[in-house]
Design brief:
With about 190 residues, this protein is of the alpha/beta class. Helices cover about 30% and strands about 25% of the residues. The strands form two sheets. Strands 3-2-1-4-5-9-8 form a seven-stranded mixed β-sheet, sandwiched between helices. It has a two-stranded antiparallel sheet with strand order 6-7. The longest helix is centred in the middle third of the chain and has 14 residues, at about 115-125. The chain is globular and about 40 Å long.
Amino acid sequence: MQDKSNGYEAIAEHFSRARTVSIGPRVVREWAKALPAGASILDVGCGYGIPISQTLLQDGFIVYGVDASPTLVSKFRKHFPNTPVECSSVEDSVFFNRTFDAVIAWGLIFILPVESQRILIDKVGRALNPNGKFLFTATKEPFTWNDNLTELPSVSLGLNVYEQELTAHGLLLVGNDEDEGGNYYYFATKSLR
């Protein structure tokens, strides 16, 4: 049976302990300032919710989570019992059959196979409200490496290809950033066409 969690179910306990550092919230908070108060945000690859979903919830946003690891989803439910979360792969999720003001995929896109990355970008384009925001992390340059935790291959398509993919799905790349941990951020907005 194929592991839809891209190896994260097998290392869920280790990941929960390792992901306690607070890298990410500063940039996520800055990005979220452009959203209306109480905006709906889909956290794809939410893991157990700390620190990204936690940050967004603390700042008053309505968060929905999706993750393919049953263990991480269970932990998410314990941390945030009133926050909707779905145990599903990106490929299979219907994103709660609704649209969102924003979608975030922190630390996710590059662990997906290339075709699944394209599927995710397409689904995000359809799941965003007009002028909706999309944030994801991946390296700026095209790069392939083995994930530190799962030891499975990770692939970043790089800035040029991601910009082409975003454009093809009605999204406009509007900015980038880098955090203290060296994570490279892509910020996109859904076109109003």
